[in-house]
Design brief:
This protein has about 220 residues and is an alpha/beta fold. It has a domain of about 150 residues: P-loop containing nucleotide triphosphate hydrolases (Rossmann fold). Helices cover about 30% and strands about 25% of the residues. The chain contains 6 helices and 9 strands; from the N terminus they run βββαββαααβαβαββ. Strands 5-6-7-3-8-9 form a 6-stranded mixed β-sheet, with helices on both faces. Strands 2-1-4 form a 3-stranded antiparallel β-sheet, with helices on one face. The radius of gyration is 18 Å and the shape is globular. The model has no long low-confidence stretch (mean pLDDT about 90).
Length: about 220
């Protein structure tokens, strides 16, 4: 694992909705160039925890500290947030303008080629499959070059080719020093790509440590 100041630190985080406990006593750290896989059964609170980590929701108790500026963090949830009436290229142009990034057509085409969408650059995104839409979302992430990426079940509904592309790019992020916090339904396969695993079960932390020592059967999704 890479060393250095943590990009993310969570200390004894808890979340309640009214009187209902979602989870408690969740602690972990994510350093530079690390992949942390978040595992647990459906309803365990994985997405809720990720939103808290990303600063999109507040914990009911505990502390969450991001050691990065907001513009250095990216979040990709269940929704793709693409504009169906715009082409893939026009979506990237729009996102670039929203981020205040000046990017030429050639530069945007490089991003689309990276995710295998260069031939669909002028096609309306509304006609895209789930896999194509997620790959366009990856291109959007490339625009901002974040240091920490939160991915909430990005592989859901993807065809094998798109899933392979996603996994390759996640590993590529780490190789470039970017950290990834990743919720996956393919825990058995994806643990091999991770550095650490955080597993939630029974409304508490069941495991946080090296991925190589995580027993998938303890908390399989």
């Amino acid at each position: 694992m890479a060393g250095g100041k943590p990009f993310l630190t969570v200390k004894r985080a808890a979340k309640f909705y009214g009187n209902k406990l979602v989870f408690k006593d969740i602690s972990c750290e994510v350093g530079p160039g690390q992949i942390m896989l978040v595992a647990g059964p459906n309803g365990a609170g994985k997405s809720t925890l990720m939103r808290i980590m990303a600063g999109l929701s507040k914990p009911s108790a505990g502390d969450v500290a991001l050691g990065l500026e907001p513009e250095e963090v990216a979040y990709l949830g269940h929704s793709t947030f693409i504009y169906p009436g715009l082409s893939a290229l026009a979506n990237l142009k729009f996102w670039a303008s929203m981020y205040g990034i000046s990017a030429s057509r050639d530069e945007l085409m490089v991003l689309l080629k990276r995710v295998g969408l260069e031939r669909a650059a002028e096609e309306k995104a509304g006609s895209f499959s789930r896999g194509m839409a997620q790959r366009l979302n990856l291109a959007r992430i490339y625009l901002v070059e974040p240091k920490l990426i939160f991915l909430d079940e990005p592989g859901t509904g993807l065809d094998p080719k798109s899933l392979a592309t996603l996994r390759r790019e996640i590993v590529g992020f780490r190789d470039n020093g970017t950290s990834v916090v990743w919720i996956s339904h393919h825990v058995a396969e994806d643990t091999a790509l991770a550095d650490t695993v955080l597993a939630i079960g029974g409304k508490k932390l069941e495991y946080f440590g090296p991925a190589s020592e995580y027993q998938v059967e303890v908390c399989e999704c």
